[in-house]
Amino acid sequence: MVTKKAAVIGYPVKHSLSPAIHNYWIKKYGIDGEYGLLETKPENLEGTLRGLKAYDYAGCNLTVPHKVEAFKYMDRITDAAKIIGAVNTVKVEDSGSLTGTNTDYIGFKDNITEYLSKHHPEHKMEKAVIIGAGGAARAVVAAVVAMNIKQIVVVNRTRDKAKILKNELSSFSMDGKDYSADIIIGNWKDRNELLENADLLVNTTILGMEGQNPLDIDLDYLPDYALVNDIVYRPLQTELLRKAEVRGNKVLDGLGMLLYQAVGGFELWFGVKPEVTDDLRKLVEGNL
Ligand code: ATR
Question: Which of 49, 130, 257, 278 has its Cα between 20 and 30 A from that of 107?
Answer without folding.
Answer: 49
